[in-house]
Design goal:
By secondary structure, this protein is of the alpha/beta class. α2 packs across α3, α2 packs parallel to α4 (158-175) and α4 crosses α5. It is built from 10 helices and 10 strands. Helices cover 47% and strands 13% of the residues. Strands 2-1-5-9-10 form a 5-stranded parallel β-sheet, with helices on both faces. Strands 7-6-8 form a 3-stranded antiparallel β-sheet, with no helix packed on it. The chain folds into 2 domains: 21-262, Rossmann fold (3-Layer(aba) Sandwich), CATH 3.40.50; 270-329, no CATH class.
Length: 330
């Protein structure tokens, strides 16, 4: 007897390896999967504008990256003692205007330089609802806690999303012919919209992505939304707020992601990376104890062996364990 409907995933035609570069952009679910990729030391860039929920904001960000746009003081606003950009998450805000611009422009520059070389672009949509600044009709990615009266709220149509992304995908393909685009839809529910409106919003995103996948050979869909809604389908797989996936659910989706996109030949190095990251979290009672010194030396040898076989940046990890040995001498 079967008691659940598990989604069976076929491996992607192109598998992601440690030699590939990837960009993850979109809702906070993108950051959940991106965190695993960073943990295993894959070369990725996650949300250069901060978390963004709707397709229009993500498209705007990708356009700015293609144009290598640099922000100027005129692009910023000042409210609640902070400078901020309506195109960015609050993590870029700062009480100092120059510092705010520096954070914004450095990230744009870093990601723009990679855009023509990345092999995979993962885009996660969260909602079809968008906000426009009432005064200028400007699309905002984040309202920065300004009163609702400052904005007009509207829902994107399937046609709007498809039209905008057909143009965007063409530009990305011209810039980087080897790029593969993978869309996902966040399973995180936007309860403030209401359960019915949330489902209609998600349905809009599903239909839009379906159309894009059908029209572009290098575009694919990863069913993170369906995995949680239909495969797991139980409140025990949600966090305490009953909206966000639990840690167990995220791990399950990650396992599906691994089976779909990551090269199985890298499983051995994945295990080594996992052990190395856990070793960094180890905090001994006495950092100068001989046993911990031996532990640090062992990790440095492991790092050296990994670097001999893979082009993976492990300098921060090496610096950490070298510092352990240095402190012993000090």
């Amino acid at each position: 007897m079967k008691f659940r409907t598990e989604i069976q995933m076929a491996a992607n035609d192109r598998l992601l390896t440690y030699t590939d570069q990837s960009l993850f952009i979109g809702s906070c679910f993108t950051e959940n999967v991106g965190a695993y990729m960073l943990h295993y030391k894959y070369e990725i860039d996650v949300n250069p504008f901060g978390i963004q929920y709707n397709p229009a904001s993500v498209a705007q960000s990708l356009q700015l990256l293609i144009e290598q746009r640099q922000f100027v003081p005129h692009d910023l606003q000042f409210t609640n003692e902070k400078w901020f950009s309506f195109a960015h998450h609050g993590s870029f805000s700062d009480s100092n205007q120059k510092q705010c611009l520096t954070k914004i422009n450095q990230r744009i520059q870093q990601t723009s330089q990679k855009l023509s070389d990345i092999q995979f672009l993962f885009i996660t949509f969260g909602t079809a609802w968008v906000y426009d600044l009432l005064e200028t009709k400007q699309l905002v990615s984040n309202c920065h806690k300004l009163p609702a009266s400052h904005f007009v709220r509207r829902k994107l149509s399937v046609a709007e999303i498809v039209t905008e992304y057909n143009t965007l995908i063409k530009r990305l393909q011209e810039l980087n012919p080897k790029l593969q685009v993978i869309f996902t839809i966040s399973p995180i529910r936007h309860l403030k919209d209401g359960l019915v409106e949330n489902q209609r919003s998600k349905a809009t995103l599903v239909l839009a992505v379906e159309s894009l996948v059908e029209q572009h050979a290098h575009v694919r869909y990863f069913p993170a939304y369906e995995i949680l809604m239909d495969d797991l389908r139980d409140y025990r797989f949600y966090a305490y707020d009953m909206l966000h996936p639990s840690k167990q659910a995220v791990e399950y989706v990650w396992a599906k992601f691994v089976a779909t996109f990551l090269d199985p030949n890298d499983e051995a190095i994945n295990r080594k990376m996992d052990k190395l990251q856990k070793a960094l979290l180890h905090r001994p009672t006495n950092p100068r104890a001989e046993s911990y010194q031996r532990f640090a030396k062992k990790q440095l040898k492991i790092i050296q062996a990994i670097k001999a076989g893979y082009s993976i940046d492990l300098e921060k990890e090496a610096q950490f364990f070298r510092a352990v040995l240095y402190n012993k001498k000090g």
